[in-house]
Design brief:
single chain; alpha/beta; 10 helices; binds 3-phosphoglyceric acid
Length: 224
């Protein structure tokens, strides 16, 4: 199992600023989709393990030789971590703070971003040795206002808010210093993929990137 050091993965994600969260029904769409995101300026994909085609999708992109950072999303078990990494994923995202998944990833040096939402979850995640966390579901719980309030006591933690974020509300997230990147599916909606509207995906991706280009980025604590 080869892997990218976790801090390199985190730095790349911070550099890209947006993580497209992709649900793919047909693995044949994987490579054109990867190319569409790259063309829009986002060579990164979080492939949600929510469809039977998800692992094949990861394999197809990994084998295509595309220079794209591949992650697996909706990871709920250590078995899924192993399958996703064997397929070519290089980071793991979970909707919640699953101890078994986090501990397994940490033991293997795999970049892992579990979902957190409360001070208790953030505190627990920091205690486990993490400092970059998915914040999910961001919009449904109160968006930027709730995020600001809940992260205030944790100055070392960085977050990837995800859930309900799109071009209409992305900008204020990047005004919060604790925000490292955001995740979202608005540029890769299911219909766009199944109808093979790849140039539209490129356009939405480039527009998303443009909205936040030039905004000040946070730094992370040493050793992360
Ligand atoms: C996820 O799994 O992270 C979310 O489903 C992505 O959220 P969005 O579809 O609201 O962007």
């Amino acid at each position: 199992m080869t892997t990218l050091p976790a801090h390199d993965v985190a730095n790349l994600i911070g550099h890209f600023c947006i993580v497209p969260v992709v649900t793919v029904e047909h693995a044949e769409d994987a490579v054109p989709l990867a190319h569409a995101l790259q063309a829009g300026g986002l060579p990164v994909m979080e492939i949600a393990l929510r469809t039977p085609a998800a692992l094949q999708t990861i394999t197809a992109v990994a084998k295509s030789g595309s220079d794209i950072l591949l992650g697996a999303g909706t990871v709920l078990t250590t078995e899924q971590v192993k399958s996703a990494f064997d397929a070519g994923a290089r980071f793991v995202v979970s909707p919640g703070l699953n101890r078994k998944v986090v501990e397994y990833c940490l033991s293997q040096g795999i970049a892992v971003y579990p979902g957190v939402l409360t001070p208790t979850e953030i505190s627990t995640a920091l205690d486990m040795g993490l400092d970059l966390l998915k914040f999910f579901p961001a919009q449904a719980v109160g968006g930027v206002n709730y995020l600001k309030a809940v992260v205030a006591p944790f100055p070392k933690a960085r977050f990837i808010p995800t859930g309900g974020i799109d071009e209409s509300n992305i900008v204020p997230y990047f005004q919060v210093p604790a925000v490292w990147a955001v995740g979202g599916s608005w540029m890769v909606k299911k219909d766009l993929i199944t109808q093979k509207r790849f140039s539209e995906i490129t356009k939405l991706t480039a527009e998303g990137r443009k909205l936040i280009s030039g905004m000040k980025r946070p730094s992370r604590s040493a050793g992360s």
